[in-house]
Amino acid sequence: MNDEPFAGIFKESNIFAQRDVLSPHYIPEHLLFRDAQINEIVKAVTPTLRGERGRNLFIYGKTGTGKTSCIKHVIAKIKELSEVRARISYINCRIYNSRYRVLNKITSDHMPLYAKRGYGIIDIYERIINWIEEDGKILIVVLDEIDSVKDLDDLIYTLSRANSDIKSGGVAIVGISNNVGFKEDLDPRSRSTLYEKELVFPPYNSTELSTILKERSERGFKKERIDAAALNLAAAIAANESGDARLALMIISKAGEIAEAKGAEKVTQDFVREASKEAEDEMAYQLVNTLPEHQKLIVYAIALLSLQGSRYKKLTEGSDTYIFSGEVYSKYSGISESMHREPKSSRWYRKYITDLEMQGLIQTYESGKGIRGHTKLIKLAYPPEKIKSTIEKALFKDNEGGEGGAVQDR
Q1: Contact 253, 19 (CB under 8 A)
Q2: How does pLDDT run across 93-145, given as a tens digit for each residue?
Q3: b or e along 329-346 (b: 16 or more beta carbons within 10 Å of the residue's beta carbon)?
């Protein structure tokens, strides 16, 4: 066996001190610029901690605005308290993406022996109710990326209506989503069971991101191994994209890896520029793969039209292609039908466009002079080739026909 690839594997890094501190998943003791949001979360869950039935809380915001970090921070602090009459289940709905899986995760968190017995959903539900009633506790169910749940109507209805079946105690929901309008997709009977408070997380600005990166880099990098100018550039790039702290951290982490691979003594702006291209591609991949199916199809339609060019030449200047919203809807409808999916109505389409812009995948503009009528112009925020390839891998890998398994272009 050739040991050369493993040479130096245990050698101490010349650039990094604590690489994990630069990870988007690392939660610092103090979350900068999120005191107001943390206070609002605490205020919302305080009644449940006392054993009262509180309101449900729904948290919204773009990717990388600190939603998950703040809720995990609050959960950790709650677990340090004594005499709390609430129990918490944090559930990543990208993994536990059905009502059965969510309910089974709750039993796994609090009744692990019962969860392993393979009971059906009714038995699990009744066991959760009985467990809550044992001492009148409140169960707080935190559903991160809640709109990833396939049968979300059933889950919301089940958890909300549980309070009608519980004689002593209750259930409170904390939902987290990038999509501020996801509740509009719910059936009216599910929406009617919700009595909720809403909290929106704003994107970070460039100054805030610079401060966050400076604090993380002081622990993540060895002393004087990254330029202040490099940190400011990474912050500016991330702020310009969408105010995403995860992107900013990913950029400086990748820049450190590039600098180390090249034997450099310091992370400079050049390494940040190189890293930003890789990080943006990776973020685009992550964003696209979290989208519901019809939003993926809309982005796919925009990518195809961007590559083909708009029918309206005046909307294409240099490398930027602006597309009429009506063109996108027509292309999306054709793709949906070719996949034997019923296209969403134009009303839902307009809502999805708003959601996609909020997540930083597209940019929209209102048409100005020189274009008849009043319409919305759409521009993809990432390279269309990359987006097209990503969606084809995610959606069409099992389909026959078309290059790369893609649907036939219509």
Answers
A1: yes
A2: 989 999 999 999 999 999 988 877 778 999 999 999 999 999 999 999 999 99
A3: bebbbbbbebeeeebbee
User: What residue has token string 């009633």?
Assistant: 133
**Sign of the CA dihedral running 226, 228, 229, 230:** positive
Say how far apart CA 203 and CA 238 lie, in whole Å: 10
Cα–Cα distance measured from residue 352 to residue 361, given in angstroms and rounded to the nearest whole number: 11
Dig out the tokens for 53 from the structure.
Answer: 């039935």
Residue 366 per-residue DSSP state: E
- Amino acid at the residue 43: K
CA distance 242 to 249: 13
**3-state DSSP call for residue 155?**
helix
Task: Write out the two tokens for 27.
Answer: 């939660």
Is the domain spanning 7-24+205-288 CATH 1.10.8.60? The answer is yes
Under 8 Å between Cβ of 196 and 172:
no
Q: What is the DSSP string of 157-207?
A: HHHHHHHHH-SS-EEEEEEEES-TTGGGGS-HHHHTT--EEEEEEPPP-HH
With CA atoms as reference, report the closest residue to 361 among 295, 316, 293.
295
pTM: 0.78
> Residue 123: what residue type?
D
CA-to-CA dists, residue 146 to 31, 96, 177, angstroms: 23, 10, 6
pLDDT in tens, 304-349: 999 987 665 444 454 567 899 999 999 999 999 999 999 999 988 9
Confirm or reject CATH 3.40.50.300 for domain 35-201, answering yes or no: yes
Domain 291-405 has CATH 1.10.10.10: yes
Rounded to whole angstroms, the Cα distance separating 187 from 274 reads: 46
Cα angle 108, 109, 115 (rounded to 5 degrees) comes to 15
State the amino acid at position 111 in one-letter form: M
**Antiparallel, parallel or unpaired: β 323-324 and 320-321:** unpaired
